[in-house]
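User: Run a structure prediction on this.
Assistant: Running it now.
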Amino acid sequence: MATCVPVQLDVSRWEAALFFHVAGPESSEDRRAMRRAGKPFAIGMETDLVETEHGAVALLRPELHARPGDPLAMEILLTPGDGGSHHEALRLLGEQPRLTWLFADRAWWVIHAQSHPLDPEQHAGFRNLLAGALRHDTMVRLTGRYDAQAALGEVVRHYELRAAVDRG
């Protein structure tokens, strides 16, 4: 499970941070590697925008390379057009100086944390993601079809279809 939300890690400023609940048995080796880590791991993130008939869904695909050849990868779905914390998280990512990653075990104890600076190119990428989502959502609102939950539901159905194909 993963999320990206605005938090106040420093008393004076808000920033978006990534939180990961690394709880399942399939992640036991990752948890072990994180607990033993004496230095930061290689990390990466891809982003994408899914434009549905009910609104835009921004996807963040963060990866942590705690074990060689087997990255811990997750997908975070955000509906920034609905306002609130999703919008604020993407806005902050487009301007904050760093990105903090926090990893917790089954009991929600932080087992690993690291941060890295965000450069102007990364800021521009997050700003473009937010702008694209808002542009799409403006058009959808004009048709009266905007519904953030329905947009999320459309994306989630694709995950369910992928799971069914993988099982089948």
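The chain has a mean pLDDT of 91.
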